[in-house]
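Reopening this one. Same input as before:
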Amino acid sequence: MLIRGWDRGAEREWQEWLAAGRDFGTLAANGPEGPVMVPTHFLLDVGAGEVLLHLAAPNPLLAAVRADPHVTLAVTDDYAFAPGRWRDPPYTPTSYYASVQFSCTAEVVDDPAQKAEILNRQLAHFQPENTEDRVTVGAAPYGGMLTGLRGLRLTVRRVRAKFKYDDKKPVEMQLDIAERLAERHAATGNPQDAAARVQMLRRRTRRPALGPSSD
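Same output, byte for byte:
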């Protein structure tokens, strides 16, 4: 992912962006026959510098991790397409998006107690209203299912964050595009247009009018 100086995400910025409910991404590993990618929910522990998740035992990504533990987890959201005529000459269309990519070292977790701990932390995060739904090794209803899955603990080595919303273009153009996104959202109901507009306006004060940029 190419990240230019004007669309780089600061640490606090990407952490707040993810904490706002973005906990689903694509995990990629290097399999013997090429990349293996899995869409998955995950739990980020910023303080511990790790990501926790689980997969079904037959998932081919696990074999890839055992062969090469280096993986990448990518989260992308708040994306929109900007037609060329929305922008200044030469009227080049572009994509707006926010994306965070974690470069990690993965560890497959097969110990039943450790798997239960990962699952319980995920349950506490994703369904905190159901406190009775917890996993206990050897106990119904979930304990017997532990043999059919594997935990994954990803140690974060590097984080790269990009918020690409024409930050280098003149402020007047950015505000005009923000209104066009609002108009298109009103016409189509596409939530991504509204989300991209929010990000564009949020970052507006950081955008110096330095002339045209390349994608």
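So the earlier flakiness isn't reproducible anymore. For the record, The radius of gyration is 20 Å.
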